[in-house]
Amino acid sequence: MSKTVQQEFAPGTHPDLPPPVNTTGIIGWSRKNLFSSPLNTILTLLAMLLLWKSLPPLFEWAVINSVSTADSREQCWNQMSSPGAGACWAFIKDRVELFTYGFYPPPLRWRVNISFVLLALAVVPVLYEKLPYRKYGLIYSAVFPFIAGWLLVGGFGLEQVDTDQFGGIMLTLIIGVTGISFSLPIGVALALGRQSNMPVLKILCVLFIEFIRGVPLITLLFVASTMLNYFLPPGTVYALLVRVLIMVTLFASAYMAEVIRGGLQAIAKGQHEAGDSLGLTYWQAHRLIILPQAMKISIPGIVSTFIGLYKDTTLVLIIGMMDILGLGNASLADAKWAGLANEVYIFVALYFFISCFSMSRYSLYLEKKLHTGH
Amino acid sequence: MRALEKIALTLIAVGALAFTATAGTLEDVKSRGELRCVVSTGVAGFAYPDSSGTWKGFDIDFCRATAAAVLGDSNAIKAVTSTGKTRFTKLNSGEGDVLWRNTTITFSRDVGVKLTFVGVNYYDGQGFMVNKSLGVTSATQLDGASVCIQTGTTTELNLADFFRQNNMSYEAVTIEKNSEARAAYLSGRCDIYTTDASGLAATRSTFPSPGNHIILPEIISKEPLGPAVRQGDDQWADIVRWIYNATVAAEELGVSSSNVDSMKGSNNPEILRLLGVEGSQGEELGMSKDWAYQVIKQVGNYGEIFERNIGTNTPIGLARGLNNQWTKGGLQYSPPFR
Fold it and tell me: CB distance from A234 to chain B under 8 Å?
């Protein structure tokens, strides 16, 4: 007991020591997430090897060796160390207008541009609750499809453009946005109809939903493109686009109805009874109590239906409509550029990834915002 | 039962109406002021959109020729894009007036699908392409090879027949599209690529080093590609047939887009009849007197159309071969304009 320990601090007043080095920062994070067990360590190393093998060549191809100004594939390849050593983005640059507007007459493309801007403006009030004067914004959003339809197709003072001139991103957006904006209300109606106590209504809704869900979309598109013309009386030939829009909307509505029915069934019976005991009518109870809750639960399902629908729009190329993927394929038949399939498909993939990823991020944000605990 | 019967009868009646309403294509086209051609969604050299969205190609030029003859304006066309699966319905349902879509004429299409084929504007045939390093010079040396082939086409059946006839075996690598086949062939997943010879030439022209690949001399099938119209409109079938004939006859007679004006003063009576200076052939077809003049002036004769789109000076680089004039050992032959 000859030695005494110098106490610098009175008991209980010692400041907190920093945490051990290997539990914080990059080291701590990687120990916890990447090397926590032998299996994880092996997987991490394998993943790193894979990235090391694939990323540098991809970067070299897509960025370092790429060529962005040329008039043909030959010219592109002549600028490279060996033909095909880099991406020939000049091809995409040459085709970007075609990919955006399809065959829409060039002097009238301002109408498409205005529609794009109006679409962006129409989306804002739907997405952001805090927008001032949101009510008027929403009215505008509801009217937007008709304004856009008038701008794109023409008539009433504007020069008429046939819908088979539509193509590219514009066509993809038209089909996607129409399907998305009309399938939600129809889907809600179908879901309520399926839950209804009225037998005829219920049977009709069930029949519709089960029939549409039992048939692949491509079958419906074939019906739209080939059979409808035989059944309709001559002279009433509807544009292919109209027939396809109807089929895509019906298809998405059936799926939407089932997603929303899932939400409706998750609502406890007490909620309905609460509505009844307050003396609310069926519509009041659904508008104020049931649907807001059911829709909130259904958000992930609704958004994944939207994303699925949006990507399914590329199926129209099988019936000869030129969406962005169809135009990409067609452009590959131009001998001037043929052989640059990778560039086209990467461009199309990027386009769809950006659109779909932003949809899914928005749905996450919405879920977080509406999360009130269940 | 009675209600069902009624519905069925109504449907049949409506269907029949839809069919009968398609007679008189010429009047429809004239009153519309625009010719609708059913074309493909992209075949190198034959139909493709350029960067401004204008359709170009061998088939498109024939569509333009048809518009020039019927409407006097080779630009008054609309390309109705269709895939292999929808092309015949688009024609039969009246969405298109004429099919210029490198379509092989077969018995079942002529008889079964109820089309009228009116000529062969391109004689094609299925061939093989191999890498030179394999040292193969004939398709009979291909025993055991792996073959890239498009699914659901007649090429698949032809291939099976050819290998069976020659007691050879092969391993099929099935692919969906030409661009996939190109990638699979270049990466060595298959030794041979087989499709129509024109397609092989077009694909080869896009390789980094086309010289390393050869197209074998064997052509194992007949693929006569030609235009089609709906059955039951003989006047319209005649029009399309003689527009095609006019391009072939013009080449044989030495009439081209550059000399067509001076040829109007030719002393060859057949040229004068063709160009509408003499006779009344245009009126008999229901068109203007100078219909063939418009075709040649605005689009060109068969040889010009061929060389412009798929000839040896284009990236596709096809030789005339079977598609040369009959006077030069080919099969392109027009009945006389008399």
Answer: yes
DSSP annotation of A88 reads B
Contact yes or no for A233 and B18 at CB 8 A:
yes
The DSSP bridge partners found for residue B80 are B38
Q: What is the Cα Rg of chain B in Å?
A: 22
Is residue A321 within 8 angstroms of chain B, CB to CB? Answer: yes
B41 and A77: CB-CB below 8 Å? no
ipTM exceeding 0.90? no
Residues B126, B219: Cα–Cα separation, whole Å: 5
Nearest CA in chain B to A240: B95
Q: Which residues in B lie closer than 8 A to residue A339 (C-beta atoms)?
A: 182, 206-207
- Whether the per-residue pLDDT at B294 is higher than 60: the answer is yes
Selected residue of A171, A319, A323, A324 to mutate for chain B interface (largest B Cβ count, 10 A): A319
Would the pLDDT of A18 be above 70? yes
Question: What SS3 state is found at B174?
Answer: strand
* Residue indicated by tokens 């453009």: A161
Chain B residue with the nearest C-alpha to that of A94: B51
CATH of B126-220 given 3.40.30.10, 3.40.190.10, 3.30.70.240, 3.30.70.100: 3.40.190.10
Q: What does the domain layout of chain A look like in residue ranges? A: 21-64, 91-104+161-370
B175: β partners = B150
Q: How far is B183 from chain A (nearest CA, A)?
A: 9
Q: Residue type for B186, please?
A: L
pLDDT band, very low/low/confident/very high, at A233 (cuts 50, 70, 90): low
- Using CA of residue B298, residue B302, residue B304, residue B310, what is the dihedral sign? positive
Contacts of B17 in chain A (CB under 8 A): 233-234
Q: How far is the first Cα of chain A from the last one, in angstroms, to the nearest whole number?
A: 62
Which single residue is written with the structure tokens 């991809």? Answer: A58
pLDDT digits (tens, 9 = 90+) for B249-275: 999 999 999 999 999 999 999 999 999
The reply to whether residue A339 touches residue B206, judged by beta carbons under 8 angstroms, is yes
| Contact at CB, A230 and B82, closer than 8 angstroms | no
Q: What's the mean per-residue pLDDT of chain B? A: 88
Q: Mark yes or no for CB contact B51/A95 under 8 Å.
A: yes
Give the helix, strand, coil percentages of chain B, each rounded to 5: 45, 20, 35
Q: What is the distance between the alpha carbons of residues A20 and A254, in angstroms, rounded to a whole number?
A: 56
pLDDT at A236: 61
pLDDT given at position B150: 83
The radius of gyration of chain A's CA atoms, rounded to the nearest angstrom, is: 28
In the three-class reduction of DSSP (H, G, I as helix; E, B as strand; rest coil), residue B195 is classed as: strand
Nearest CA in chain B to A333: B44
Count of beta carbons in the 10 Å neighbourhood of residue A193? 20
Fold exhibited by the domain A91-104+161-370: MetI-like fold (1.10.3720)
**A123-149 pLDDT, tens per residue?**
888 877 777 887 888 888 888 988 999
C-beta atoms of A333 and B42 within 8 A: yes
Chain segment A245-284, per-residue pLDDT in tens? 999 999 999 999 999 999 999 999 899 899 999 999 999 9
Q: Please say if the pLDDT value at position A237 is more than 70.
A: no
Domain boundaries, chain B: 25-123+224-328, 126-220
Judge whether A81 is closer than 8 Å to chain B, CB to CB. no
Nearest CA in chain A to B46: A333
Q: Could you check whether B25-123+224-328 and B126-220 share the same CATH topology?
A: yes
Residue positions counted in chain B:
338
CATH number for B25-123+224-328 (one of 3.40.1260.10, 3.40.190.10, 3.50.30.60, 1.10.1740.10): it is 3.40.190.10
Kindly list the residues from chain A whose CB atom is less than 8 angstroms away from the CB atom of residue B212: none
For CA atoms B180, B182, B187, B188, give the dihedral sign: positive
